[in-house]
Amino acid sequence: MVETSTPPCRFNSNRLEIKRWIPTLFSSHKTLFTILWIAAFASVFVWQRDIVHGFPIFRRPAPVSDLPRLRPATFNLTDFGGVGDGVTLNTEAFQRAILAISKLGKKGGGQLNVPAGRWLTAPFNLTSHMTLFLAEDAVILGIDDQKYWPLMPPLPSYGKGRERPGPRYGSLIHGQHLKDVVITGHNGTINGQGQTWWKKYRQKLLNNTRGPLVQIMWSSDIVISNITLRDSPFWTLHPYDCKNVTVRNVTILAPIIEAPNTDGIDPDSCEDMVIEDCYISVGDDGIAIKSGWDQYGIAYGRPSKNILIRNLVVRSMVSAGVSIGSEMSGGVSNVTIENLYVWSSRRAVRIKTSPGRGGYVRQITYRNITFDNVRVGIVIKTDYNEHPDDDFDPKAVPVLEDISYTSIHGEGVRVPVRMQGSEEIPIRNVTFRDMSVGITYKKKHIFQCAYVEGRVIGTVFPAPCENLDLYDEQERLVKRSVSQNISDIDYDF
């Protein structure tokens, strides 16, 4: 017979040892306190493990929820006289609904539901602690008669309207000095009906700068998600001097030609911003990070910083997928652009500036960027000479430094890199690593540089310009460049 139980003598011996050990252990107050503290922490951990919001450092990150923020009060636009027939003007219905929500700020605000339908409106203002929710098949239509669009003072960091001197038109959906605003839905649409504006602009029939589709100014804690923005008269989404802004799962559309200046998203003197999981196809830059124009931006002094752009598909036949500038006089720093796919576009990623801008562009990280049928992949241009007036200081030159490109791939690219510094605006500390781009033109000078200082780590295709130091994969110097200031720029192709 096989014995499977613990021998009595061994069990009794262990029990006697434990009895002798416990009084000795608890005789020390410090030891007792330590044991009690560990027990308490473990009990809390076990308890928290089974509820929704446990200790995040011990749990896998949960998927980000795109559900709208819950408000204590909910309203329907039809409760305020809204008619979604595409003909009735609903401006007063929006204004009455938002006025009701504005009175609930101390209680957490309110949500305005826009049901399915076509809701024609003139421009209106949002309020704090508000959620604007667009149902599936809901379309907010901007009226295309310019007399309904109010004129506003120029942006203080621009000094004049971006296109014309003097005042500028306001945006269709506008807000100033707001906190805690959400614009979301089940992929409803905000449509600026910009065709009339574009035609008048081309015919030079407008005396003032066109207005954006959505513009939020001097505000914080803004979330824009799960909607479509299309056919803006001018820039589509323009956060100005805002903090803590999230743009997620947004589709932005405009014709890729003959829709002038319809940038997708233009963070302007913004701080702590995330743009992710978006599709953008527009008639100008997909994204353009800005911070003021020449002497006005320098005086205003609000940089754009701490911006994360990731997981985007972008198309821009006229300009670039993601740009920095050209209005960057307040400075741009600490920007990460990753997991970006740019297709059938004129340029992929671009930094543009000029003498007179002042400011700086630094600590810019590009990572995992893919080009597909792009004319020029990476661009830095330092002679983008557009100025608000003749009072700019030509000696106010910007600083361009600490810019890195890692994991850059693609095909069908005519010129992979064109980095045009100058004697007065050199480009410093540029890094290329892990780059392989299929080219359509087998010419010699397709990796173009002028007044560029930096390095290439490991293998880069096509062969880099002579301005850059060469390092191996272990970041050991292989060859020091002696030609940082030579120019290899060729605009003929």
TrEMBL record:
Q: What is this protein called?
A: Polygalacturonase
Native organism is Rhododendron simsii (Sims's rhododendron)
Instruction: State the Gene Ontology BP annotations.
Output: carbohydrate metabolic process
PANTHER family documented for this protein: PECTIN LYASE-LIKE SUPERFAMILY PROTEIN, PECTIN LYASE-RELATED
One Pfam annotation reads Glyco_hydro_28
Query: Which family is this protein grouped under?
Result: Belongs to the glycosyl hydrolase 28 family.
Q: Does the keyword Hydrolase apply?
A: yes
User: What's one GO MF term for it?
Assistant: polygalacturonase activity
Q: Which UniProt key words apply to this protein?
A: Glycosidase, Hydrolase, Membrane, Transmembrane, Transmembrane helix
- The regions listed as transmembrane in this protein's record are 21-47
Top-level division of the source organism's lineage: Eukaryota
